[in-house]
């Protein structure tokens, strides 16, 4: 029987003395189908925000800080840090005797190179730079000490350093090979190192025998990029996958019936909403947007389509998010009132409403169909338009080319509402192509300007209430992370952020 430890702190993340580097017990090859859309196309940490990248990146790279499976912050490549000069400078003490996969030493120069690159021209090409703009400069104090000079407060920065764009990269390797080569031949300091990559097919990693936290048990990890959820489920049932991260919920009962498999679900950060085009058409009217929220029975969708693997939300965040307000109520389903408001606002029967969604997301496709059914019952004429995920995320939304509503599935990887709210609602942000609200901007900036935890919490809760009042989106649900797992996988730790680190896992 598989041993699952969803809340256990992965001690290998915290201390380097957990096992002698190079010591290991052979643990076989683990085959994983990650979250959709699967292949991120680049394994450079500054090029992505996708959870699918995090599945892989957490094997290849380390940050200065890290998170255990319980989401608590622990030391990573920095063993210690302290706030100095009235919180305008952070001094990091770095871990000794760490090497990148190519043998290049990890040191203060590597940290400076990583952040100079992230905050420079190369970082402008990706979506991560804005998360780290509080860093004015990184100064090398000595080989194992760096200072981060801050231009403004950022109470979430230490958590951000555990994620995505802040993963430490090798200066010499990138300078010699170039950014394009690094995208598809990644090198980090993580527990596994790159072997081979076939775009849109697979990525193969092997154990890093010299990992500072002790060598993993597994010999290899193979990621298979299977974008169709039903195919993931079929491959899991056939024994050709050990972990499937994106299976149709309708197939969970079949998987449970297989004696060699199990379904594991945990609370995660992923929240799903339908954002509104507040510039064009009927959704430019706030009262109409509120009516559309009333017109959809989210409880029924969760029960009938999501099989209970979700909970309704009043704002675009789940209960694990700092800033979550349990007193903020979900707008109740009231189809009759919705129809009445639409009539009062002059919306004619048969008015078209377009819903854009990620075409590869089979589970949400069914949800979108259900939402369309409710809107039709409200007297509208809904249409669904599916896009390839990267097209929707990198072209349609940022350039303000959406229909009236669009799917927004957000991981909230910092587990802090700031990461969601600032990106979604602040003027000029990639995910906010339509709104410019000075009042909302001021609140978003205010919570970033203080390290007072209680003050931040209140401001974040005020933001959620304001967004609900403005009806900038139709909050749908906070989705549980659901995995299909083969029983031959032992000692698997499943973190709430979906960023596996297969240090203790083995395959028998």
Description:
This protein is an alpha+beta fold and 508 residues long. The protein has helices at residues 51-60, 108-118, 121-124, 157-160, 171-177, 179-184, 229-237, 252-257, 286-294, 298-304, 335-344, 362-377, 389-396, 417-425, 438-448, 453-470; strands at 29-33, 65-67, 73-75, 78-84, 89-94, 135-142, 145-150, 192-198, 202-207, 220-224, 243-244, 261-266, 271-276, 310-312, 352-358, 381-387, 405-410, 473-479, 481-486, 489-490, 506-507. The strands form five sheets. The chain has a seven-stranded mixed beta sheet with strand order 8-9-10-1-11-19-12, with helices on both faces. A six-stranded mixed beta sheet has the order 14-18-13-17-15-16. A hairpin with a 3-residue loop joins strand 8 (192-198) and strand 9. Helix 9 (286-294) runs antiparallel to helix 11, helix 14 runs antiparallel to helix 15 (438-448) and helix 15 (438-448) runs antiparallel to helix 16. The longest helix is centred in the C-terminal third of the chain and has 18 residues, at 453-470. The protein is globular. Residues 1-25 have low confidence and may be disordered.
